[in-house]
Amino acid sequence: PNWRRGGATTSTSLRVSELHIPGYRETKVPFILTDDDLVGDGSTGGAPTLTRIGEIAFTDSDYESQIPYESGHLLHKSRGPIFTGAECRAIVEEAEHVAAEMGWTTTRHGNYPTTDIPIVELPSTIKFLRLALVERIYPLLRKQFQPFLPDGTKLRVADGFVVKYDAEGGQTELKPHRDGSVLSFNVALNPANDFDGGGTWFDSLGDSVKIDQGEIVSHASGVLHGGHGITRGRRYIMVCFVILEGYDTWSMRFYNNIRHL
Question: 236 CB contacts (<8 Å, ≥6 apart)?
Fold first, then answer.
């Protein structure tokens, strides 16, 4: 799409989907890891076992960074998958199974709706994600955005959903907008050769960032971005909005400082 660069800064043209929603205080709860998530079911015949949490230690070589700001960057793209192909396929299969019963939602995000299924409606996916956040995604985000975050241990997903783009009569793109959280990330759930086009478009780049199955794009929520249109096939992504628990004033200040980018 021929999206013009450079967003206006008036309150009516900021193109914000949801801005620091008070309800995020409640919606973050289902994404918090619990003891039950760590207990095995004993299905192999023995007593239930406790899963040990093992955080991945990421380095600068694990991702590419763009949109420089102060002493860091506001956009990052992984150099490899953070989810396996099998994990991605399981998420898509569960989303399609649930959608066959309840339908894909199209009105959850106000001015910038996506065709999606909330992760809270996907029991297997949300249980998997709770552990993946602690072991993989939060450590990655802490490393990537360390120059800005006052306390990286307070990262919390407040909303998450599986998005479906479909060139055959479904939603094919998402217009430029800003998310109403601190950080946002999306994970590609199907191979890039399943569709033509796609990627996440960023106004600061005037271009799209494309990833393959299992890879992740993370960015400051306040930068202007959109879902670049597909012209063939289907594209599935997992999108999550991340807040910094207990730092509302800092979050709003950070958001306002970078929203012109």
Answer: 88, 91, 92, 95, 162, 163, 164, 165, 188, 189, 190
Cα separations in angstroms, 125 against 19, 84, 91, 240: 26, 13, 6, 13
Overall pTM surpassing 0.90 (yes/no): no
d(CA 212, CA 85): 10
CA 3 – CA 231 distance, rounded (Å): 17
For the record, the structure tokens of 190 come out as 């199907």
DSSP letters spanning 91-124: HHHHHHHHHHHH--B-STTTTS--SEEEGGG-HH
**Residue 17: closest CA among 163, 121, 122:** 163
Q: What does the block give as tokens for 90?
A: 């399981």
**Cα separation, 150 vs 87, whole angstroms:** 32
Q: What is the CA radius of gyration of the chain?
A: 18
On the question of pLDDT at 18 being above 50, the answer is no
Strand ranges (DSSP E) for the chain? 63-69, 72-78, 116-118, 155-166, 174-177, 183-188, 195-197, 200-202, 207-209, 216-220, 225-227, 230-244
Check whether 131 has a pLDDT greater than 90.
yes
CA–CA separation, 174 vs 253, rounded Å?
26
Round to whole Å and give the CA distance between 78 and 213. Answer: 11
Q: Tell me what the mean pLDDT of segment 18-42 comes to.
A: 77
pLDDT at 38: 86
Q: How far is CA 227 from CA 30, 72, 109, 245, in A?
A: 26, 24, 14, 27
Q: Both tokens of residue 16? A: 């914000």
What mean pLDDT do residues 138-145 have?
Answer: 98
